[in-house]
Design brief:
Elements (H helix, E strand, L loop, with lengths): L2 E2 L9 E10 L4 E4 L1 E2 L13 E3 L2 E8 L4 E5 L7 E6 L1 H22 L6 E6 L3 E6 L6 H17 L3 E7 L15 E7 L3 E4 L15 E8 L2 E7 L7 H10 L2 H9 L10 H10 L3 H14 L2 H11 L8 H12 L3 H10 L5 H15 L1
Parallel strand pairs: 1-4
Antiparallel strand pairs: 2-3, 2-8, 3-7, 5-6, 5-8, 6-7, 9-10, 10-15, 11-12, 12-13, 14-15
């Protein structure tokens, strides 16, 4: 039997284990314990490495978990390392699915019958013939509100005979692994999840379509090219709390097209938390356009912005490395002593 380490710690990315069996000329490995999640319940398998060998697939074989490798490995003990970006992406998707399924189940009583997580979109299949546009909008809004509340997400184990309050009854007998979103949802689930709803990021419902007698809802997360337009719309039209959440989940390469729109938004934005997150997002994006926007703010060229935003821009430049350091050098001698001091400190961080 394989001990599944992800049952108790979804954030465990490195582990050591003992090889207990081999098959397929050593390319199929069985361990006494593993952090690698096998494809199951709509969630794709993890990838990563065992020793210096790539893990191409992970298969649930009931009592055991098989690791399919790019080449055979030798030795009786092995160190494993997950592809963390892929794992965390699946964690965000899976908890996001639980969240959206819960808000669709109450008050609308739309049951989720199946799910699928992909590299750009996730889908939910709902046991309902049709869903009104206002119900979709309302579910998306409530889901994002709960994201901004950063509610705890916990994992526990209960006996199937005594577990109550589950969104969907479980047919399993014996111990159940139950994932709980505080004051919202309890579901029997073996997948990997984040610790709090704020880690999910913004939830966008891209489309709804009828499939046979049910409705499929397609979701996208921050950073995929096909959701850049709706992200821009959310940054203009949503509440400050949702705008902060969206900005906090923008990532470098995937969000490059948003650098100029963010720079323009900063000059019209009035909410201080949103202003701060725009500057942080520009620092993470780090493109020439983003650096230009940060330089203009840090230099005080955008005159309507207060000094606290100049200081925030300087802090963001510290995280960009050498390109940021080039800008910070010119600011270290600023006539404003506070700006100069902050730039000098940030320059040290950028060069570290």
């Amino acid at each position: 039997m394989t001990e599944r380490l992800y049952y108790t710690d979804s954030y465990l990315a490195d582990f050591e284990a003992r090889v207990v069996d081999r098959a397929d000329d050593g390319r199929r490995i069985y361990l006494d314990r593993t952090a690698f999640y096998p494809t199951s319940g709509g969630q794709p398998h993890d990838t990563g490495r065992l020793g210096d060998t790539d893990v191409l697939d992970v298969v649930d074989e009931g009592e055991r978990v098989a690791h399919l490798l790019s080449r055979p490995i030798s030795g009786e003990r092995v160190a494993g390392r997950l592809n963390w970006e892929r794992r965390f992406d699946h964690m965000q998707q899976h908890t996001g699915q639980h969240l959206l399924s819960a808000v669709l189940a109450e008050p609308h009583h739309f049951a989720t019958v199946s799910v699928h997580f992909g590299p750009e979109t996730s889908t939910l299949d709902l046991d309902v013939g049709a869903i009104a546009s206002e119900q979709v909008v309302g579910a998306e809004a409530r889901a994002n509100t709960i994201v901004t509340e950063n509610r705890p997400v916990t994992v526990g184990f209960e006996d199937s005979g005594t577990a109550t309050g589950l969104r969907k009854p479980s047919e399993r007998e014996g111990p159940l692994r139950i994932v709980t979103i505080a004051d919202l949802d309890r579901s029997a689930c073996g997948g990997t999840h984040v610790r709090a709803t704020g880690e999910i990021g913004a939830i966008l419902i891209r489309k709804v379509e009828r499939v046979r007698k049910s409705v499929a809802t397609a979701l996208s997360r921050i950073g995929t090219p096909d959701v850049l337009e709706p992200i821009s719309r959310m940054l203009k039209d949503s509440s400050p709390a949702i705008r902060v959440t969206v900005l906090g989940n923008l990532e470098g390469n995937k969000s490059r097209p948003l650098a100029m729109p963010l720079a323009a938004l900063l000059e019209s934005e009035e909410h201080p938390d949103v202003q701060r997150e725009i500057l942080r997002a520009l620092g993470r994006i780090g493109t020439p356009d983003a650096l230009l926007a940060l330089r203009r703010v840090a230099n005080g060229e955008v005159r309507r912005l207060p000094k606290r935003l100049r200081l925030q821009a300087i802090e963001s430049l510290a995280g960009v490395g050498t390109p940021g350091a080039q800008i910070l050098r010119t600011l270290a001698g600023d006539a404003d002593a506070e700006i100069g001091s902050a730039a000098a400190k940030a320059l040290q961080e950028a060069m570290a």
